[in-house]
Amino acid sequence: MTHEPDDLKALGERMDALKRETGVAPKTPQAPTSGEVAIRFGTELISAVIVGAAIGWGLDWLFHTKPILTIAFFIAGAGAGIINVNRASKQITERTAAAARAAEEAEKEH
Predict the structure, then answer these.
(1) CB-neighbour burial class of residue 73 (10 A; exposed 0-12, middle 13-18, buried 19+)
(2) What is d(CA 72, CA 70) in angstroms, rounded to the nearest whole number?
(3) What 3-state class would DSSP assign to 21?
(4) Domain boundaries, the chain
(5) Are 19 and 79 in contact (CB under 8 A)?
(6) Structural contact between residues 88 and 41, judged by C-beta atoms closer than 8 angstroms
(7) Each residue of 51-105: pLDDT tens digit?
(8) Is the pTM for the entire model greater than 0.85?
(9) Does residue 76 contact residue 40 with C-beta atoms inside 8 Å?
(10) Angle at which helices 34-63 and 68-109 pack, to 10 degrees?
(11) Which of 8, 66, 68, 104 has its CA 20 to 30 A from that of 98?
């Protein structure tokens, strides 16, 4: 078990050497397409709302309190979905900035 970090380091070094030999360039960051952004935002928002509503419905069924918990957890899920979309937008902004930096670096090299 104590040899794992050494083994992983050696494996990483062998992979890097193989990449240099074969001429495989490291993957440059790409800016996300508008379709990727739309799917990511939609998935983040809809999944949180569905999970929140499902939890609320299940608790309503369990405690016989229809529909108060379904509504409460639906709203909580919508809030969580908005927070998730906000986080995703920050990640997408960072990815776009990294792609722009990579493009500038490539332009300077040529």
Answers:
(1) buried
(2) 6
(3) helix
(4) 32-109
(5) no
(6) yes
(7) 999 999 999 999 999 999 999 999 999 999 999 999 999 999 999 999 999 889 8
(8) no
(9) no
(10) 160
(11) 8
